[in-house]
Structure formats: C-alpha cells, structure tokens
Amino acid sequence: MNKKPTQSSTNPYKNSDSNKRYYTYDYWLRQTFGGKCAKIPIDAGFTCPNIDGKCSVGGCIYCSQRGSGDFACEAEIPVTEQFEITKKQLSSKWQTDKFIPYFQAHTNTYAPLEIIKEKIEPVMALDGVVGLNIATRADCLEDDVVGYLCELAERTVLTVELGLQTVHDGTAMLINRGHTYADFLAGYEKLRRASDKINICIHLIFGLPGESVSDMLESVMEVAKLRPDQIKFHLLHVLKDTRLGDMYLSGEYQPMDMESYVDTVARALLYLPENTVVGRLTGDGMQSQLLAPDWSRKKTVVINNIDKKMYAEDLWQGKFFDKKA
Predict the structure, then answer these.
(1) Is the peptide bond before 293 cis (omega within 30 degrees of 0)?
(2) What residue segments make up the domains of the chain, in order of their start?
(3) Quick one: which of 100, 182, 261, 282 could link to 131 by a disulfide (CB 3.0–4.6 Å)?
(4) For the CA atoms of the chain, what is the radius of gyration?
(5) Is residue 89 left, alpha or beta, with left meaning phi > 0 and alpha meaning psi from -120 to 50?
(6) DSSP secondary structure, 24-75, as one string
(7) How many other CB atoms are there within 10 angstroms of residue 22's CB atom?
(8) What is the chain's mean pLDDT, rounded?
C-alpha cells in the first residue's frame, strides 16, 4: 500500500531536512558544527549611543533597561561566571557540549577596543566554545574594532548581529533609533568589505508604530538585496516601564494580532534569498514585564502556524526573491 507523502518529502525548499520551508538556525547549526549548540547570553555591561547622549538619550522606545539582555545574568557578574551559570541552567534543556557565547545586551562594540577585548577574550578560552555572536549597531563599527572582528573571524565562527529594525527613517526617528538607513548601509558595507568570514545577521521588527504591512515587507525586500548571511524577525512586544509601554497604556499604540503577524512573516520569507539563515521568527520578552500582546507568550504556536500556512499555500523561502535586484 502506498504511503501518503509527508510534508518533509514534498518540501520544495532545499535548505531543509524537515517540514520547515525556510532556512532554520537549527539546520545551519547542524550543518556548520555537526550538531546542536547552546547559545549563552552574556551581558558585558556596555551601553548604547542613543542612551548615553552621543546621538540620543532614553534608548529605543521598546527597550527594557537591560537593552535586550533580560535573559542574561547581571552585568556585574564576570563574563566567565555568567557563561558557566547559564550553561548549567541550560544543561537540562540542551544535551550538547558545544556552546556559542552571545554578547546580546545593548551595543557590544561601543567601547574602546581594549575594553571590548577584556570582555570577549576570557569567554573565547572556555571549554566547549565553538562560535561567537556579537550584537551591535552598524553605526558603532570603528576601524580598530572592525579589525578585531576580522581577527576573531579567523579564529572562530563569528556572527555579528546588526540591529536595523526598519528601513524607514520616519519610523526610526519615531522609535528613537538614533541612526538612518544610510548610516546602517555604511556600517554594513564596511563590515562586509572587511572580511568574507564574518557572518552578518540583520534584525527587523514587525509591528512598529505607524507601519503598514507594506512598509514591513518593503524593509524585508530592501534587506534582501544585501543578501545577509542571517536575518532575525521580531514581533514588537510591549514591556512595562518603557516609552512604548506608556503609548500602549494611553491608547497610542496597538500591537499586531497573531493572524496578521503570522501572515506577514510567511510573506516576508518569500522575498529572502534562499541561502539566508533565519535566526528567529518572533521575539519574546520577560514574562513578568510583558504588557502586550498576550499571544506572544505562545511562541511555539506562532511558529507552528507559520509552518502550517506555508504548507497550505505552497510557500517557501526565496520563492519571490528577485535574483536580479
């Protein structure tokens, strides 16, 4: 008796060994390192130029006080201790001896080079470290820092994560991003020219105040032209004690609903290059700090709904990517 074809066996997308119709980070990890790896978030105590007054104050309107580092240990704890503490906490979830330190909080190239090295080098020497992720901004890439990143890329699998969020300068001003899309492009190209061994990951946020779905997809299509190594999609979630939180509570801002978000992400994947790794499909905040949307707590449901939609409508990453663009 003939067996019914499975979603995996009928998947038209090449960079997958499952039902996923996009280039998952898990698949990339297994292809790159031969197995699963655990990412270890680290807060090195850096700040941002739109917090300390260099280009603005107050930070982005959606950021918590810890600047996306809420899931890391406190910055006062030495970085090597942070690594070991979180590694132990994750040991029950991730059965692996391969780890990727993730310098996530705030802007991790926004400091004198010697300070940056003091934070990164001790972690690089720890057992089991096979790669390194550094989150930063494209306007914080001084020449000596870029030189150091090139050196790191010769020693390990380095991913530099650049927060962009939107290509629309009006939105960037509204969210207090502190740089323009032109500024981002200058930093991106500088890093790209410096080394072909640096993996560059670009972050985009869906649901920013005032943006339509067309605006969000325009950001995706513009970023796709850059052919980034990786991309992360985030849902804009509203946290307590933020400017966005105040806007939400006063009725100035309404988050996306789940159906709209799922549809937007599924459509966004169509316009990406087929070889761009999708590092994230949705964002999550600290549960104790989350104001809205409540459905964002169901991250697995969101991802499953994206998978179902792509299968039902015969969609896959890169289906509409314009290779001539």
Answers:
(1) yes
(2) 25-312
(3) 100
(4) 19
(5) alpha
(6) BHHHHHHHHHSS--EEEEE------TTTBSSS-BS--TT--TTTT-TTSPPT
(7) 26
(8) 93
- Indicate whether this model's pTM tops 0.85: yes
Distances (CA, A) of 214 to 53, 56, 152, 181, 263: 33, 28, 38, 17, 12
Candidates 248, 219, 238; CA nearest to 296 is: 238
Structure tokens of 159? 């991913």
Side chain identity, residue 97: D
The answer to whether the beta carbons of residues 130 and 28 sit under 8 Å apart is no
Which band of pLDDT confidence, cut at 50, 70 and 90, is reported for residue 324?
low
Contacts 24+ apart (CB under 8 A), 93-99: 93/38, 94/36, 94/38, 95/36, 96/35, 96/36, 96/37, 96/38, 97/128, 98/33, 98/35, 98/36, 98/37, 98/38, 98/128, 98/130, 99/37, 99/38, 99/39, 99/40, 99/126, 99/128, 99/129, 99/130
What is the architecture of the domain spanning 25-312? Answer: Alpha-Beta Barrel (3.20)
